[in-house]
Amino acid sequence: MLIYAVLFINMALVFYTIGVWGEKIQKKLKGWHLVIFWIGLVFDTLGTSFMAGIASNGFKLDFHGITGLLAIVLMLIHVIWATWVMISNNKEMQLKFHKLSFIVWILWLIPFSSGAIFSMMK
């Protein structure tokens, strides 16, 4: 199960990074960014689920558990807002959306990094 958890979390990093940086470089939210965000969220949710299954008591109320949960919630809000921006076809919001994306990505890196660091310390 560990290999699946690691694989899925790393796939989330790859897809979410491609989506965020692609959007930041292009300075406009596009349909392919939205698809990549959804894929990243799915991989993150799968990876987190596998990791919770590996943990002895499931979800833990520690730094990594709390920041990880907040990261998934932020990603969900992010992808729902991106979907709404695309559906509403709001050109102004499509141009400004990348600012939120970058912030969410940076915050997502906290539990990603802490998980790697804490697991190496064991």
Structure characterization notes:
This protein has 122 residues and is an all-alpha fold. It has one domain. It is built from 4 helices and no strands. It has helices spanning 2-26, 31-54, 63-88, 91-121. Helix 2 (31-54) runs antiparallel to helix 3. The chain is elongated, with a radius of gyration of 15 Å.
Share of residues in helices = over 70%
Summarize the helix and strand pattern as letters: HHHH
Q: Characterize the main sheet.
A: none
Rg over C-alpha atoms, rounded to the nearest angstrom: 15 Å
Features of the shown structure:
122 residues, single chain, 87% helix, mainly alpha
What's the short story on this structure?
With 122 residues, this protein is an all-alpha fold. The protein has helices at residues 2-26, 31-54, 63-88, 91-121. It has one domain.
